[in-house]
Amino acid sequence: MRTNIIRHESMMVSYDGVNGWTVVEVDGEVDAHTAPMIREGAIKLIDEGHRHFVLDLGFVTFMDSMGLGVIAAITKRIREHEGSLRIASVSARMLRIFDLSGMRESYEIYPSSAEATQSAPSPGSLTHWPHPSS
């Protein structure tokens, strides 16, 4: 059952549990105004005991550097709790942002949430973050 955690005029965030993963779906703009709300929502989920996340960006219409910054901040917090993070449903335009920022190599990126959640999470998958494991 999908649960809304943030409702804002330009963005909504909801989550659902799938195969041990907390799939967080962002719908709308991720910018300087909405990024702090996303961070607070993710921290709340972590504080509630969620550890393994799939961040679904399929409905993100805009993301700036603050959006990338909030993803890095959330990743750091998840790592501190020995969790894991996968990114899903990234558009070609968004993938280019990950490439230009150098963040693409630091994340497992999947074409869809369904593919990201096929295998159960493994603790410690962020051990090498922010550097890719080779």
Automatic annotation (TrEMBL):
Biased composition, class Polar residues, residue ranges: 114-125
PANTHER family for this protein: ANTI-SIGMA FACTOR ANTAGONIST TM_1081-RELATED, ANTI-SIGMA FACTOR ANTAGONIST TM_1081-RELATED-RELATED
Domain called STAS: residue spans: 11-120
NCBIfam families in the cross-refs: ant_ant_sig
Region of interest (Disordered), ranges: 113-134
Domain of life: Bacteria
InterPro entries listed in its UniProt record: Anti-sigma_ant, STAS_dom, STAS_dom_sf
UniProt family annotation: Belongs to the anti-sigma-factor antagonist family.
Protein name, per record: Anti-sigma factor antagonist
PROSITE patterns: STAS
